[in-house]
Amino acid sequence: MSRDSSIASENTLNLTDNEVLEEIEVQIDDASVSLTHMLHATSLIAEQVKDLAEKCSANANFLKAWRDLLKDGHRDVTTPGQTSAES
User: Fold this and answer.
1) Cα–Cα distance for residue pair 67/51, rounded to 1 Å
2) How far apart are CA 13 and CA 72, in angstroms?
3) CA-CA distances (angstroms) from residue 24 to 17, 20, 52?
4) InterPro entries recorded for this chain (predicted)?
């Protein structure tokens, strides 16, 4: 057992039941505040990820449209027997 934990155990032994309960309540309050901050941060990050996903999807659709236009243009240029005057 480390020196710090043995000191903590000695201090705990010297506390009354009410003092122990109060210390536990304080620790629970601290934990709930920390968890609330983590939840808020997680919500903000989730919203940013959602926005990024929407932008990526829009970019993917844009690139697909360009790919399709380039394929169609390439097919038009390489179609045998057709001149630009016939188009």
Assistant:
1) 24
2) 82
3) 11, 6, 41
4) RCDG1
